[in-house]
Design a protein that fits this description.
By secondary structure, the protein is of the alpha/beta class. It has a single domain, classed as TIM Barrel. The protein is built from 12 helices and 9 strands. The strands form 2 sheets. Strands 1, 2, 3, 4, 5 and 6 form a 6-stranded parallel beta sheet that branches. Helix 8 (about 220-235) links the parallel strand 8 (about 205-210) and strand 9 (about 240-245). Helix 10 crosses helix 11. It is globular and about 50 Å long. It starts with 9 loop residues before the first strand and ends with a helix.
Length: about 325
């Protein structure tokens, strides 16, 4: 980064209820780009409506944000003084059982898709299933199609066996956009050394997560978070670690129930840890929202990270990964 050049700050996953006030907070936090979630349990038709809502929202706030369809759009947004928004889903439910919808949603701007959410689906197992049977035949085809069209495979809530199968089967690097090392913060949502070794060795990127339930809750200190970043960088390498906050701002109890239960159960899913986490989390004082990103960068510098390492973790790694990952295979061939 040259003198006068702005740091790239990218949040690899958010689940907030967006309004103009939050967009202004992104600008206050000097955020370059955000991956926003458009589906958890939604069907294809419901997801189309959600995408339509996002199109309108972006148009109504076009002075602040723009849609990102390719990696170059991130730099374009920054040069225009806007925040780039990447549409993604935290489940493959929008595909239903139709392989052709991978390309359809990619053309509509959905450039990241998590294979499973908190339940088994046609592709594979979630991290909360008692038995993870691995990637299905349909799942293998979905990954091949995602690779072809330039849609990034996300494995954040996915079970270990399915995750390892997906990493092996994908011809292109994949991501775990919002999770932490399980040996630092034990949780079924966090990832084992076996999983993160496979992700590292195949060129993937891990988005370290600030969601309090994946750390030590609201009492987690900035120093403890920076220690986790340092340990993860030592294990993964500075070029393969980024941030994915999983921010859940501005939601009420109805959405919390939808997030936890979807349509597949009529009661709270205690197997997914909801008994211990019955409500929205309280966030640490040092990270209450997007405006606090610069403080994280300062803390990492104070911890002893070099400027290049901080630039990489705060957003440079995501920018590189998205720029490569959003290219369709035919575009890659043209570039070679």
């Amino acid at each position: 980064m040259t003198a006068g050049e702005k740091m790239v700050i990218i949040d690899g996953l958010t689940l907030s209820n967006w309004n103009r006030e939050l967009l202004l907070e992104l600008h206050k936090g000097q955020v370059t780009c955000v991956h926003v979630c458009v589906a958890l349990w939604e069907t294809a038709r419901e997801t189309l409506s959600k995408i339509g809502h996002w199109y309108r929202f972006i148009e109504e706030n076009s002075d602040l944000v723009m849609l990102v369809r390719k990696g170059e759009d991130i730099s374009k947004a920054q040069s225009l003084g806007k925040v780039g928004l990447i549409l993604g889903t935290q489940n493959a439910s929008p595909l239903e059982d139709d392989l052709s919808l991978v390309e359809v949603f990619s053309e509509l701007g959905v450039k990241i898709m998590q294979l499973t959410y908190n339940n088994q689906n046609l592709i594979g197992s979630s991290c909360y299933e008692q038995t993870d049977t691995g990637l299905s035949r349909f799942g293998r085809l979905v990954i091949e199609e995602m690779n072809r069209v330039g849609m990034i495979v996300d494995l954040s809530h996915v079970g270990d066996r399915t995750t390892l199968d997906a990493i092996e089967h994908s011809s292109r690097p994949v991501t775990i956009s919002h999770a932490n090392p399980a040996w630092i913060y034990p949780s079924r949502r966090n990832k084992s050394k076996e999983v993160l070794t496979a992700l590292r060795d195949r060129g993937g990127v891990l988005g370290l997560c600030l969601y309090p339930y994946l750390m030590n809750g609201a009492q987690t200190t900035m120093d403890e978070f920076c220690d986790m970043v340092a340990q993860t960088v030592e294990f993964m390498g500075a070029e393969q670690v980024a941030l994915g906050t999983d921010l859940t701002l501005n939601w009420g109890e109805d959405f919390l129930k939808w997030m936890r239960m979807g349509r597949w159960t009529h009661k709270v899913d205690y197997g997914a840890g909801s008994a211990a986490n019955p409500s929205w989390p309280e966030w640490p004082t040092w990270f209450q929202g997007p405006s606090d990103f610069p403080g994280v960068a300062v803390a990492l510098l104070s911890k002893g990270f070099s400027k290049n390492e901080v630039n990489a973790v705060m957003g440079g790694n995501w920018q590189r990964f998205y720029t490569e990952g959003f290219q369709a295979e035919k575009e890659i061939n043209v570039c070679v």
